[in-house]
Write the structure tokens for this entry.
Amino acid sequence: MSGIHLKSNPVEQQLESLRALVEELRAENAELRREFGYWQSVHARASERNTKQQSKLEESKAEIRQLKLVRKRKSSQPAIVQIGSMIQRSGTQQRPENLCRANLA
């Protein structure tokens, strides 16, 4: 009979309601913690992937700079190649400066 009497007491009803609410909040808290762990790992993987992509991008940029330098050197190289072939054709060991002067005269 005391069980029936306790349920009719407003304070006991509030207490029971609050206990149920606490239980709901604990379950929600546990779910949110699981979700947090999941999204934290997703973020960590994305950050690692981003770091790798940034590294690849920097390597690619460096390679492009290197290739541009090589291309620039090759475009200015024909004059040097011409001088070298002139030395081979003349059969003498003249200095490139002298060959240039000789070509100008």
Observations:
- The two ends are 129 Å apart (CA to CA).
- The helical segments are 2-8, 10-76, 78-90, 96-104.
- Residues 2-104 form one domain.
- The chain has a mean pLDDT of 81.
